[in-house]
């Protein structure tokens, strides 16, 4: 039973265009959502997060949108750069920060120059 | 280096041997989490520890797996009598002591365990 779903295993985008990565969740108790970026042979690196009291959070080229009624969040990267090519994981947890994260299976983003 | 440190990076064991994976959290972090990633899968939670206490081990197999986070020294994930299915990447994450603040968990680079 997957509580966090990333339905697109891969995505290819041209350099300079927008990348949109999607994530759906089923557990209505989740109140904190995070995106991690992972390169091969490295650990996940925290990218951006959003609390359930917000519907948008922006950090430079990265913006996360949260639609609680649809239990859906998305990560927008604009403009996309070749160095953004990596696997992106959506994760969520509940009640407080100090609880285990539940991860999606990841989306592999390829930014083509 | 103030990041989460895991060692070894790669570990090869034969079936039936023991594997010990170590994790030193970031400075100022007293919460440690272990996750396992199988090929083409996301990370799956195994166990959550604070110093000298296991807080949540609901993701850990009941047999052969154990974890500790002693008062001094790194957290250890121990797998006894390893089997082929234990081959995976094991990641450790840590988060700050302050429970009042919502902080992301920070991850180490993992230990890749291969069972021959």
Describe this protein's structure.
In chain A, 0% of the residues lie in helices and 56% in strands. Chain A is built from no helices and 11 strands. By secondary structure, chain A is an all-beta fold. In chain A, the strands form 2 sheets. In chain A, strands 2, 4, 5, 9, 10 and 11 form a 6-stranded mixed beta sheet that branches. In chain B, strands 2, 4, 5, 6, 9, 10 and 11 form a 7-stranded mixed beta sheet that branches. Chain B has a 4-stranded antiparallel beta sheet with strand order 1-3-8-7, with no helix packed on it. Chain B is globular, with a radius of gyration of 14 Å. The model of chain B has no long low-confidence stretch (mean pLDDT 92). Chain A binds chain B through residues 4, 6, 32, 34, 36, 41-46, 49, 51, 89, 91, 96-106, and chain B through 4, 6, 31, 33, 35, 40-45, 48, 56, 59, 91, 93, 95, 99, 101-110, 112.
> Strand content of the residues of chain B, in percent?
over 45%
Quaternary structure: heterodimer
How many β strands of chain B by DSSP? 11
Cα Rg of chain A:
13 Å
Q: Which whole number gives the mean pLDDT of chain A?
A: 94
Number of strands of chain A: 11
Enumerate how many helices of chain A there are, as a single number: 0
Q: Ends of chain A: how far apart?
A: 38 Å
Order of helices and strands of chain A: EEEEEEEEEEE
Low-confidence stretches of chain B: none
- Structural class of chain A comes to mainly beta
Largest interface: A-B, 26 and 29 residues
The biggest beta sheet of chain A, please? 6 strands, mixed
Strand content of chain A: over 45%
Biggest sheet layout of chain B = 7 strands, mixed
Q: What is the share of helical residues of chain A?
A: under 10%
- Which stretches of chain A are poorly predicted, pLDDT < 50 over at least 5 residues? none
Cα distance spanning the termini of chain B: 33 Å
- Mean pLDDT of chain B, nearest integer? 92
């Amino acid at each position: 039973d997957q509580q966090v779903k990333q339905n697109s295993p891969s995505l290819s985008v041209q350099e300079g265009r927008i990348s949109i990565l999607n994530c759906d969740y089923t557990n209505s108790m989740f109140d904190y959502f995070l995106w991690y970026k992972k390169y091969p042979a490295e650990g996940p690196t925290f990218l951006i997060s959003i609390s359930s009291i917000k519907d948008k959070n922006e950090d430079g080229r990265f913006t996360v949108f949260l639609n609680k009624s649809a239990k859906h969040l998305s990560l927008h990267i604009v403009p996309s750069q070749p160095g953004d090519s990596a696997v992106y994981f959506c994760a969520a947890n509940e009640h407080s920060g100090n609880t285990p994260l539940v991860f999606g299976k990841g989306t592999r983003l390829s930014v083509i120059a | 280096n103030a990041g989460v440190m895991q060692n070894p990076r790669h570990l090869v064991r034969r079936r039936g041997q023991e594997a010990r994976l170590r994790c030193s959290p970031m400075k100022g972090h007293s919460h440690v989490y272990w996750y396992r990633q199988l090929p083409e899968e996301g990370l799956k939670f195994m166990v959550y520890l604070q110093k000298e206490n296991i807080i949540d081990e609901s993701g850990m197999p009941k047999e052969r797996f154990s974890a500790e986070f002693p008062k001094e020294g790194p957290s250890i994930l121990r797998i006894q009598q390893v089997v082929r299915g234990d081959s995976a990447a094991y990641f450790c994450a840590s988060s700050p002591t302050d429970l009042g603040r919502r902080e992301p968990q920070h991850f180490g680079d993992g230990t890749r365990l291969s069972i021959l």
